[in-house]
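Data card: per-record layout.
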Amino acid sequence: MKSIIVIGSSNTDMVVKTERFPKPGETIIGGEFFLFAGGKGANQAVAAAKLGGDVCFVARVGDDSFGRQAVEGFEAVGIDCHHVSTDPDQASGTAMITVDASGENSIVVAPGANNTLLPEHLSEVDFTAASLVLMQLETPLETILAAAQAARGKCVLNPAPAQALPANLLDGLFLITPNETEAELLTGVFPTDPASCVRAAKILHTKGVENVVITLGAAGAFFSDGNDHFTVSAPVVKAIDTTAAGDTFNGALVVGLAEGQGWREATEFAVRAASISVTRMGAQASVPGRREVEP
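The structure for this 295-residue chain is written out next.
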């Protein structure tokens, strides 16, 4: 299996559990406080590594304890950190997360050093050695565009957090993995059933995206390559914290594909991994190991 390059953010997550989310202007008393390693890029890199992938991570951290702890965590799970650089002038990224009694979350991110991951930091990355390049939207768009051009034909974009995307980024993507909200923003179609999933995927195909996987939360995931399509259902679980479910899904999916699994097998693998992650607190801490996910 060739390596998987993950380009993206690294954050430290500060999590408070509460019965409900506060209303605007309201102060409520919460429950337990947790400090977790997070950031969509880091979460996906760790997920891919813990699930058996050979992972190289490209990121920026601050010259602070959060940044040093993050790199130590990446190295502990076997991630190649040669392209994780330090910004001496910016703090490491942080996220404030509230988790309610049903396991839903509300997140505010302070990007810090993530905003200084620029195209110049890709100059020494060997894209030819990778089977897939996985990216998200918590780092500058110019860097994502540069990576998509450098690794055309092997780029996987998880378009989160949701935002409008330029046509030249979508055109030529190997795979895009929006959730329902992100799919609606990109296509104008909210995917509520197989027919609407097909409509949303068709729009993305016409924009130049080769393959589409739409994550559907507790309903599983939908796949389309423009000819074939199917839905993989998710097992019924009791959700405790959904913070990194999508990141776990993406990390698992690229591992399956890099190993040569077919689309259905890789999607089923990713759904199982994500379903396990929501039964645990935290982002990277909730990612299961390979043995837990094997059928």
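Known properties of this structure: Residues 3-24+31-118+125-286 form a domain with the UDP-N-acetylmuramoyl-L-alanine:D-glutamate ligase fold (CATH 3.40.1190.20). The radius of gyration is 18 Å.

See the next section for split statistics.
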